[in-house]
Design a protein that fits this description.
This protein is an alpha/beta fold. The protein has 2 domains: 2-162, Rossmann fold, CATH 3.40.50; 165-337, Dehydroquinate synthase-like - alpha domain (Dehydroquinate synthase-like, alpha domain, Up-down Bundle). It is built from 12 helices and 11 strands. A 7-stranded mixed sheet has the order 1-2-9-6-5-3-4, with helices on both faces. Strands 7-8 form a two-stranded antiparallel sheet. A hairpin with a 3-residue loop joins strand 1 (2-7) and strand 2 (11-16). It starts with a strand and ends with a helix. The model has no long low-confidence stretch (mean pLDDT 96). Pfam families: DHQ_synthase, DHQS_C. GO terms for molecular function: 3-dehydroquinate synthase activity; metal ion binding; nucleotide binding. Keywords: Amino-acid biosynthesis, Aromatic amino acid biosynthesis, Cobalt, Cytoplasm, Lyase, Metal-binding, NAD, Nucleotide-binding, Zinc.
Length: 340
């Protein structure tokens, strides 16, 4: 087992290579009360032994769980079962589950302990780590949220064996992003014939840990984790969420690389490496040309817009992020034209 320490608003560890049944039993034995939040589709895969101090809340699958009505159901269960500040929540699932459970933990009694056991690659390397929690509003994702770090992140690599190819590929977009912004070795590992998931995940988690240790509440430095995400989020919404988050981010990464080539001196070989790596994992790297007006409108409502300027993260070279604070529409149009 590998352990990565994170020091943000609290200190906690990401444990990689655990046995999920053992960790669940451990939490049950030491918690006064434990609420386990798990999507319905995982209840056959993960067996939870009954216990007088354990309460299991089944939630819808995917983004449907990040809804105020589901949150109210959790709040009600916490109330009925008299959860106090020394009681705990365990999220088992993908990124949507960690977002939901973490927000429930952040808001109950102004904050109780929670743990997360991610079951998808995207959650293991991204959503479960860093303390961003949220539910969705009727028209947008993640506008209602809080920063509230988990007390532990528990990664069982065996869950990767149950993932479909599309889910695994979608998670790879976040891995590739971390390689380009901070750790070239990740990219080298992804180009090998046999993937060492333990090392890949460990190095990716270390990238995110280093960033959030420096800037937990995203005052600026943490924004490098949004490489590829400004356009990626817009594409995700424009597709009416038919594209997975990682698939939309994949397209956004190629766009950001092209923007970096235009404005920051990123070499053509590094732009090409973006395309090749993402394609190797069957991720999309193009989007419809006629969707740019819609994407511009969506990007203008992005949380990170400042002074009516759409902001991006670019690269001058691998491992060297650049903050692009004022990119005009002509520059966006030129870079977008290269991904159509």
């Amino acid at each position: 087992m590998k352990r990565i320490k994170i020091n943000s608003e609290i200190k906690y560890s990401v444990k990689i290579g655990i046995n999920h049944q053992g960790e669940i039993a451990n939490l049950q034995s030491r918690s006064a009360k434990l609420m386990i939040i798990i999507p319905s589709n995982l209840t056959q895969l993960i067996k939870i032994k009954s216990s007088k101090n354990t309460f299991v809340i089944k939630v819808p699958n995917g983004e449907k769980q990040k809804d105020i009505q589901v949150l109210r159901k959790i709040w009600r269960a916490l109330e009925v079962n008299e959860f106090a500040r020394n009681d705990e929540i365990l999220a088992i699932g993908g990124g949507a589950t960690s977002d939901l459970a973490g927000f429930a933990a952040a808001t109950w009694l102004r904050g109780i302990k929670w743990h997360v056991m991610p079951t998808t690659l995207a959650a293991m390397v991204d959503a479960a780590i860093g303390g961003k929690t949220a539910i969705n509003s009727p028209g947008s994702k993640n506008l209602i949220g809080a920063f509230h770090s988990p007390s532990s992140v528990l990664i069982d690599l065996s869950f990767l064996q149950s993932l479909g190819k599309r889910d695994l590929s979608a998670g790879m977009a976040e891995v590739i992003k971390c390689g380009f912004i901070a750790d070239k070795k990740i990219l080298d590992l992804l180009e090998k014939d046999v993937l060492n998931f333990s090392e890949i995940i460990c190095r990716t988690v270390k990238v995110k840990a280093k960033v959030i240790n420096k800037d937990f509440k995203e005052s600026k430095y943490r924004e490098i984790l949004n490489y590829g995400h400004t356009l990626g989020h817009a594409i995700e919404k424009d597709s009416k969420y038919k594209l997975r988050h990682g698939e939309a981010v994949s397209i956004g990464l190629v766009f950001a690389a092209e923007l970096g080539a235009m404005k920051c001196g990123l070499s053509q070989s590094e732009v090409d490496r973006h395309r090749q790596l993402l394609s190797n994992f069957n991720l999309p790297i193009t989007y419809a040309k006629n969707r740019l007006p819609s994407l511009l409108k969506i990007m203008k409502s992005d949380k990170k817009v400042k002074n009516d300027q759409i902001r991006f993260i670019g690269l001058s070279k691998t491992g060297k992020p650049v903050w692009l604070e004022a990119v005009n529409q002509q520059e966006i149009k030129r870079a977008y034209g290269r991904i159509c």
